Amino acid sequence: MNLADRIQTLRKEKGISQEELAEQAGVSRQAVSKWESGQSTPELEKLILLSDYFGVTTDYLLKGTEPVPTAPERRADGRIFTVVATACNFAGLVLAICVWVAWQTVVSVAVGFLLMAVGCAVFAVGQYVGTQKQDAKELFTLLNVWPLTLMPISCAFNMIDGVLGGFYWQLMPIPELGNSLLSYGLCWLLYLALCIGADAVVWGRRKERRSAEK
Hints:
By secondary structure, the protein is an all-alpha fold. Helices cover 75% and strands 0% of the residues. The longest helix has 33 residues, at 133-165.
């Protein structure tokens, strides 16, 4: 197939007449007829105009060379990062509790927060380089609000309860039964309300988003 054939084929594929193509190119119908019969060739300016109009390259018009499609960039699913981050965060909480039960040292809190920092960093990387970012973010919040909030709430509760109760307290990964069952129960109630409430909000927004996408 030569230049003349390609112009004619593109015109017919677009479903226009020689007159209509001539109007688009700013030439006469006879000029288009000569292009398609091979009696003449379009000038460079007209070749560029034709390539833009037909949505092809000038290389294709002149030589029939199709552009080589570029391979799509492969990116990791952001939800994979969320799964890894969630594993780190739960591992941090479990390890902190285990260390506390074994040695009753504030190091347990430090170890737990360190692993959770790693988990949050993994999630942040996934949000930067991964795909499915919104799904990954919702999944992260639904799962990780539980491990990420327990230690901060526990540390704050133990400090406040100890100061108000006038007894020795330590930073630890879980609430300590101190002054009364009432304050201890209120701490767990606050934790459950916070986590369940956050999950309910995220789940509701997730359903709304998916309904809007349908």
